[in-house]
Amino acid sequence: MAQASLICLLLSFSIIMLSNAADISIDCGSSSSHIDADNRTWVGDTDFVTTGLTSKFVPFSKFPAELTTLRYFPTGETNCYTNIPVDKGGKVLVRTRFLYGDYDDESTAPKFDVVYDGKHRDSVVTTTYETATQSEAIFIPENGNISVCFYRTLSSETPFVSTIEVRMLDDSMYTDLGPKEGFILQQRTAYGAQELVRFPYDPYDRIWMPASVFASHLTSSATSIDTTGADNRPPEIILRTSWSQKGMAFYDIKLPFSGMTFYIVIYFSEPLSLGSDQKRSFNVYYEDKQVGSDLIVPPFGAVTQASLRDVVKTELAYLTFEATPDSTLDPLINALELYVISNSGGSGNGTNSTSTSGGGSPSPGGGSGSPPSTGGGSGSPPSTGGGGGSPSKGGGGGKSGGSNNGDGGTNKASEDEKSADSSGKSGEEKSSSNLALPLGISLPTLLSLGAGGWGVWKYFIKPRRHPESELPLKQNISLQVNMGNATVVNAGQ
């Protein structure tokens, strides 16, 4: 009997190991392996790449070891990592991270493109010392291995990469993804969280960035939250906080430039055990298109998701949360994912190119990938109450060792997150107004709206540093908002 139990235990363990066999973390520029604080094994990159040079630098602040090494590509138009093992036909998440750290003493962070499996292209815009940037794609590989290629878009720029992470997803997740498509991440946000959330709290190692604004932060009173009601399986911890506010419009959700086709999915979980005289029900619209097919009634102790795809961003892009007439409570949001849809348009075919000429085609995914974590360990569970806050300063820097010169990067992500206090509310106020989220603007500005007519407000948006990756906004943007007794609160630069 004991022997049979042991066999069953070993069989179960082997099945678990097999299900995660395709997960791999590559420490680019390193020839050795190590295990990080979250028990992830990082392997060196020499089995996957034959071109480029390596460098290592000593950062000014605490970065995980895998971000202190990099591989850069001073020659060739396209340089590729190949033969990265995956499960053929399954859904895969591939994340690339870039920490420049001034490894070449040039103080100039480069721009370039990354192409996943020869099909799905994203533009990479790196920063200088203290922040890492990230790109991420979800797609269905046609073979049992994939490539990740770095494409020089200007002859003066030198692509580089710090890490490549591959995570297999369940087939039941992201069912809106077509077999030839890719989802290029723009934003993955947990509203009300104080710290970023990733593995082990998300078993698929997605990185959820915190967000905070002067809105009501609600914390769930449910003893547990069943996540199986959402196909994409958001982690329970991000469903324990939400934003809810009466008569509020805030600017946080961002999209790349007009004309891009995107996919958006939003998650909802009721934080309160409602009485018989309480009801929370609402619809969500992107402009005049409904997000999801049904009225949203967030379940207590469970989760529901609503999604919309094949929508082209216009200059003025709004998400509006409209409470139903019989709703006694305001709309809420727990978390959101935002992707540009790639239709197999990337020109990197998984082979190295010796051409040194610059110039590349634009990314079908548009702007920079999403905000990431540059940090490693989770340690204690991330706090889920309160706000997100601004990133801490102090990052990479002085170079040590390495060979020759190069550059590198992609979307920004702060290594450390400072939390901003924000008081919670019971959420029991009566709702008669809508929660509106204008798309395409990453800005800590809150409009507390009173009654009044519609108006157009034009202003110049100043670039600011944010824990999430973003491109500076340099153009005048016209926003249509309810201007009755509107007050503007700037949460800081």
UniProtKB/TrEMBL annotation:
Residues 1-21 form the signal peptide. It is found in: Membrane. Residues 413-431 have a biased composition (Basic and acidic residues). Residues 357-409 have a biased composition (Gly residues). Keywords: Membrane, Signal, Transmembrane, Transmembrane helix. It is a single-pass membrane protein. Its main location: membrane. Residues 26-340 form the Malectin-like domain. Residues 346-434 are annotated as: Disordered. It comes from the Eukaryota. Gene3D superfamilies: Galactose-binding lectin. GO terms for cellular component: membrane. InterPro entries: Malectin-like_Carb-bd_dom. This is Malectin-like domain-containing protein. It comes from Arabidopsis thaliana (Mouse-ear cress).
